[in-house]
Specification:
Elements (H helix, E strand, L loop, with lengths): L5 H10 L40 H68 L5 E18 L5 E17 L6 E5 L2 E5 L2 E6 L4 E3 L3 E15 L39 E13 L9 E12 L7 E3 L4 E5 L1
Antiparallel strand pairs: 1-2, 1-10, 2-7, 3-6, 3-8, 4-5, 4-8, 8-9, 9-11
């Protein structure tokens, strides 16, 4: 394209005839393709359609294309920006919902845990009460025998009945009751054993628990001498009638000393206050000291004051 100088544009404007009304002049700057030094600009004068230079039409079409492309880019940018704003709005609306759900779950868990702690704290002081009433020895027999290794020793066979009272003091829960083995020992040897059958005790109720303590041919290894019942007293000899002499008073033999025994076991109680989530446990360790006498065989031996009940 040929670039006109400022002098040519001025002379052209002076030689052209005067027309009315005169239209305003438009100047369009475009980069020069022939210049290598980075110079820009060429000016074009438009006075009328008839007096326009040959290159004015191409400059106007190029200008309209540039404006059209810019408008299209602006529209595309506006659409992209609008979509981004919509996406951001969706994210901003979705985030609080998830937060609300999470806050509800956490709050419900905390409230449930607090309620469970309240129930546990209310149930823990309501411990069951246990009192051992008596024990009755139906059988206690010592005889010679052999242990599993063939060693000769005294063997004891016994059968006793233990009675106790169990009371559940809980006002809003029942308990499931079991026990450890009930061991009856003599001289650190367990001569009998039994256990409480599992049972359920409803709230604010009580029952009498009966346990059989049984031992069959337990070796004593020299400790059974005191368990052997004493022989019956010898008959008092009759005095001869013909002979007179001093009167001899025969005293009956002294009764054997009581045989000390020890009863030891643990009663376990478990309450299901809120299903398996809240399970307060109550353990009672019971130790009873028994003074057995052969004359009390098949009789009730009271143990109310001889037993110690300890919570563990």
């Amino acid at each position: 394209m040929h670039t006109k100088t400022d002098s040519e544009v001025t002379s052209l404007a002076a030689s052209s005839p005067t027309r009315s009304p005169r239209r305003p002049a438009y100047y369009v700057q475009s980069p020069s393709r022939d210049s290598h030094d980075g110079e820009k600009t060429a000016t074009s004068f438009h006075s009328s359609p008839m007096g326009s230079p040959p290159h004015s039409h191409s400059s106007s079409s190029r200008f309209s294309k540039i404006n059209g492309s810019k408008r299209k880019e602006n529209k595309q940018f506006a659409m992209i920006e609008e979509e981004g704003l919509l996406d951001d709005g969706d994210r901003q609306q979705g985030l609080p919902r998830r937060c609300y759900v999470l806050a509800f779950i956490v709050g419900f868990a905390l409230l449930f845990a607090f309620f469970s702690l309240i129930l546990y704290g209310a149930a823990k002081p309501q411990k069951p009460k246990i009192s051992v009433k008596s024990i009755t020895f139906e059988q206690l027999k010592v005889q010679a025998g052999q242990d599993a290794g063939g060693i000769g020793t005294d063997m004891i066979t016994m059968n006793a009945t233990l009675r106790m009272m169990y009371r559940n003091t809980g006002t809003f829960f029942g308990v499931h009751v079991t026990s450890s083995p009930i061991d009856l020992s003599f001289s650190q040897i367990t001569i009998g054993s039994g256990t409480i059958k599992k049972f359920y005790q409803s709230r604010k109720s009580q029952r009498t628990v009966i346990v059989n303590v049984i031992g069959d041919k337990t070796p004593l290894y020299g400790s059974g001498s005191t368990l052997v019942p004493p022989p019956p007293p010898a008959p008092i000899p009759t005095k001869p009638k013909k002979k007179k002499g001093p009167i001899v008073i025969i005293e009956p033999p002294a009764p054997p000393a009581p045989v000390p025994m020890r009863l030891n076991f643990t009663v376990r109680s478990r309450a299901y206050v809120l299903g398996k989530l809240v399970q307060p446990k109550f353990y009672k360790r019971i130790v009873c000291l028994i003074n057995f006498e052969h004359k009390k065989l098949s009789k009730h031996i009271p143990l109310t004051t001889n037993c110690t009940v300890t919570s563990i």
